[in-house]
Amino acid sequence: MIGSVYRRYIKNNLFMKLLLSFALITILTIITLSYMMYHVMSQSVVQREMDNQKKAMESVNAFLSEKYESVQSMVLGVYREPRLAADISYFLQHDFRDYIEHGLNRYYEEDVAPYGLSYFANRLEDDPDIRNLMLYSAEKQSLYVYNRQKSAKLHVTNAVHSYVPDAMALDNKNVSVPNPWVRKEIDQWDPRLFAVRAVMNDKNSLKYVGQLLIYFDSDGIWKSLASYKETLKGTILVLTPDGNVIFDSSGTYYGKSYPYMNQIQQETGMLEQESYITTLAQNQAGYVVVGTIPKQEIAAASQGWKRTIIIASVLGILIAILFPSLVVINFAKRTNKIIRFMKKVETGDLTSRIIEPKEDELGQISRSFNDMLDELNRYIERVYKAEIRQKHTEFAALQARVNPHFLYNTLEVIRMRAISQGAHDVGEMIFSLSALFRNVVQQKAVYTLKDELEACRLYLELFRIRYKDRFTYAIECDRELYGIPVVKMFLQPIIENYIVHGIEADRDDNRAVIRFSRENGSIRVRVEDNGRGIEPQRLEEIKEALGAPEEVGGSFGLRVVYERLKLLHGNRAGMELKSKPGAGTTVTVWFPEKEGAGESDV
Predict the structure, then answer these.
(1) Is a pLDDT exceeding 60 seen at residue 399?
(2) What SMART domains does the entry give (predicted)?
């Protein structure tokens, strides 16, 4: 079915071939450009979403850093006021009862009211994100706890009754999830909390006396994401180095360890699904902000662009093909009309005329054809049939003596036409062929090695252009040897043998090398290639056929070269063949340097 359609509508229809070629090139070009555009737009969408997420991550980091700095500022605020620092230091190193008595004594003696604990109570009121504020005494192993109800409670957490001292000693991260033993002690089980700790030392002795521990509500982080809530894609998490979840915008991993800690250092990775990953580390506070966006979510954001590009591509293809098709179809109809009139003239109807009013190329061809018919009719009327027969005979005789320059000029016209149409490689091949014909036909009194090399170069150049980047060649010859007379066309059949039988079109490293050398008064020519090579049995047959009569064996080209060399130089000339299947063939020819054939007809 396909074959019949091809033969009927395409094989001999130049316009259909042009139309199909143009349509194919147009479709491939538009599809390629569309794909590149979609790829660029997709990458732009990915980059935009990741930039948006990164800005949101920076807002989260700024929020957490602010909380971390606020806790450090509380401690620095204590150190900046000597009386407050002394009061807090005394509280952390003595029993609560002793602290109260100490405060009352100072009040009566110095008329100074104790306000150490009220300092932290005020900080609790200043920050609505604080859920619990705790002062831990390392010496008394007690925990003084404030909560949002403005109540305070002292917890005895010595090692006999609690694991809190162990937890406070080991848990040295600045920002982390609340320790479960502390949670149990203060009965605080809300999973959406994160803890910030600061060490407290005695201002005078620099002795470690306790810690300030604050639980913040991680839902407060959403305040920093308010401007991104509508456009934010994917998930933002805040993790401790050991994988505990401080914040999770999806709410999935609170109270759990994040299961993909090993993958978050990659740009992309398989989490719940294949995702883009961005990290933002806060080394001082000891946490990392992680942003993940599933690739499917990004792809969904690109669907609008994809549909737009597809629609635009289809419309572009239709428009780009429709209008040229109409033009080509119109030209095809007019051309077929001219062909039909030409066929009528072939049958002997010299009265037919082409009606073509347009002034384009086809119109000019039509008028030229009509003028030719008019001139032909006048010529027929002007001469006799006998004269026509005589002229026909003279023309036949003249054709036999046509100067080869007609062939060169014709090839040059074809070459220039090919170049004008953009087929530069075809133009180069025609130029090489024309030069090769001129070299072969040209009569010279002395045919030198330089002439033979030029003929070989032109021949090889044809096939270098034919096989583009899959075939190369090299000719290595000292200029001192250029003037040596040689047998005409003694090297070209050897090269042709490689081109016809040795070159492999599916390889891109085909190579032929011709080397000339002078050895003991003889010229030695070595033609090497890396082609298919010759099977051992076939190689022996070729060697036996070199000295056989013309009608016996194959390898006509090699046999002719061998016979011509032997005819001119006798036993002082010879030929040697070496070949290995798959590794190439080497043909070596040698002949005396001082004797040679220079006549063009040899």
Answers:
(1) no
(2) HAMP (SM00304), HATPase_c (SM00387)
Burial class (CB in 10 A: 0-12, 13-18, 19+), 280: middle
Which two structure tokens, joined as six digits, stand for 208?
């470690």
CB 585 within 8 A of CB 577: yes
Tokens, residue 414: 């074809």
How many Å apart are CA 577 and CA 356, to the nearest integer? Answer: 65
Query: What is the number of other CB atoms lying within 10 angstroms of the CB of residue 414?
Result: 16
In which region does residue 504 sit, left (phi positive, over 0), alpha (psi from -120 to 50) or beta (all else)? beta
Nearest alpha carbon to residue 75 among 213, 198, 206: 198
User: Bridge partners of 282?
Assistant: 287
The first and second tokens of residue 115, run together, are 């306000």
| Separation between Cα atoms, residue 269 and residue 551, nearest integer Å | 74
**Angle between helix 116-126 and helix 82-93 axes, rounded to 10 deg:** 100
408-465 tens-digit pLDDT: 444 544 555 556 555 555 656 666 665 656 555 555 667 788 888 888 888 788 788 7
Q: Which of 148, 150, 186 is nearest to 167 (CA)?
A: 186
286: left (phi over 0), alpha (psi -120 to 50) or beta: left
By the 10 Å C-beta count (0-12 exposed, 13-18 middle, 19+ buried), 341 is classed as buried
Structural contact between residues 517 and 524, judged by C-beta atoms closer than 8 angstroms: yes
Q: Which residues are within 8 A (CB) of 337 and not within 5 positions of it... i.e. 6 or more apart?
A: 354, 356
Whose tokens are 């060649």? That residue is 473
Share of the chain above pLDDT 90, in %: 8
176-213: buried (b, 16+ CB within 10 Å) or exposed (e) per residue? bbbbebbbebbebeeebbbbbbbebbbbeeeeebbbbb
Question: Does the reported pTM lie above 0.70?
Answer: no
Token pair listed for 576: 């040697």
For residue 464, give the amino acid letter.
Answer: R
User: Hey, is 560 helix, strand or coil?
Assistant: helix
- DSSP letter string, 218-268: GGGHHHHTGGGTTT--SEEEEE-TT-BEEEETTSSSTTSB-TTGGGTTSSE
